[in-house]
Amino acid sequence: MNVALAKTGTSRAVSDLFASAQGRLPGTAKIAEARREALEVYERLGLPHRRIEDWKYTDLRALVREVLPLAPAPDAAALALAGEAVKAQALPGVHRLVLVDGVFAPGLSDLAALAAEADIKTLREVLEGDASGDFLQTASTDAVISLNAALATDGIVLTIADGTQVSAPIQIIHVATVATASAFTRSRLCIGSGTKVTVIESFVAAGKVGAYQVSDTVTLSIGDRADVSHIRLMDDAPDAVNITSQIVTVGADTKLNFFNMTTGGVVSRLQGFITLAGEGSDLSINGVNLLRKTEHGDTTLVVDHAVPGCTSREIFRAVVDDRAHSVFQGRIIVRPDAQKTDGKMMTRALLLSDEAEADNKPELEIFADDVSCGHGATAGALDETLLFYLRARGLPEKEAQALLIQAFVGEAIEQIADDDLREHIIAMAERWLETRK
User: Fold this and answer.
1) Is residue 107 pLDDT above 50, yes or no?
2) pLDDT one-digit tens code per residue, 31-70
3) Are 171 and 200 in contact (CB under 8 A)?
4) Could you give the CA distance from residue 240 to residue 178 in angstroms, rounded to a whole number?
5) Which long-range contacts (CB under 8 A, 24 or more apart) does 128-132 make?
């Protein structure tokens, strides 16, 4: 007997979207075949829901009730609007790469200086020349990663040669200019051995653009003896949906500092899959969720210690106001041969209202015996004693709360080594705090 799985309305909408968008999706015949295979994986799995353990707290079938059509290629008006957003968000002295509504915008990017230090291509260029179809093939059983492979329109393909000391941070800015539309981007960053570089990803809206959807996947491979900082700043429009997946492989004797901050979007999820594949590497992950109103922010991280002698540290902070919902899921896996692993994880949530919600789920999966691993999780309100102390010295209640909140998230932000970048992130947090006044 043939059994057909019933599709939800959202699943049918995605299938229709793919059918209507095929003429706009770049790639060779082999790429088109890889896209169809990825869509078949998605159709078999459907949108993630609460019965899938990794998506227990972020049920996309309930939170995302429709899939929006692909955003049109940006015209002159959209590029002008995006240019204003880039001026507001671009950090000084960086190599800037800009994607507007999911399409690379060379006129807003700083290609000349970076081209002297790295090989830069767009995803569209690579797919149009990939006769083998390998670039989009994915063995993933994750529905959102497969859907991204099926519909990816553009992205950054960046290769940095061994031993390169990149002269300035590389900032990839994703700008949304169109409401009720979606953008699917996919990037690959290959960082050579002995390389030192900082990569910043910023997600922003141009003007007062309304609801839109972002799907982004980044594959990052780092060679041996590298020193890499990877910063992600999600400051989308209040009604936006942003689902980002990051797949990272780290070589031997490498230092990777990763930081994520979410301050916007009605629904957001960052899922990171990080494999420590070379001995002696040091991984530091820090994150901050600043959520209000009915925002839902999910950070899900899997750190896989696949070899001996690596260290990982995770510090995550969430500040949740109104009826917002913060989720942190962190899993440390220690493989049987990964002796001498040192892995620690701590997540803390600060609830500013009685209706705020925080779900913290740290996990350890340890298959080796000579290791040092631990985790912790806390959730609570502002310390009333400290709040009283500040108010007794003349500070208004909101200002007193702001000082305590800044101190709470400061431990995660202070791990950023670059002074200008750290000050930029502190300013983002301060702007969020001002919205509570």
Assistant:
1) yes
2) 999 999 999 999 888 889 999 999 999 999 999 878 888 9
3) yes
4) 11
5) 128/26, 128/27, 128/28, 129/28, 130/27, 130/28, 130/30, 130/31, 131/28, 131/30, 132/30
Residue pair 216/189 in contact by the 8 Å Cβ criterion: no
Confidence bin at 200 (pLDDT 50/70/90):
very high
C-alpha angle with apex 319: 318 to 320, nearest 5 degrees?
110
Q: What is the dihedral of CA 75, 241, 263, 425, to 10 degrees?
A: -50
What's residue 137's pLDDT? 73
- CB 195 within 8 Å of CB 225: no
- pLDDT of residue 11 exceeding 80: no
* Integer-rounded Cα radius of gyration of the chain: 21
Q: Work out the burial of residue 70: count CB atoms within 10 Å of its CB; fewer than 13 is exposed, 13-18 middle, 19 or more buried.
A: buried
Q: Are 189 and 118 in contact (CB under 8 A)?
A: no
Please, are residues 47 and 147 in contact by the beta-carbon 8 Å criterion?
A: no
Kindly report the average pLDDT of the chain as a whole number.
92
5 pLDDT more than 50: no
Q: How far is Cα 338 from Cα 317, in angstroms, rounded to an integer?
A: 28
Query: For residue 275, what are its two tokens?
Result: 């494999």
Tokens of 305: 């210690």
Pairwise CA distance, residues 433 & 137, whole Å: 43
Work out whether strand 95-100 and strand 182-191 pair parallel, antiparallel, or are unpaired: unpaired
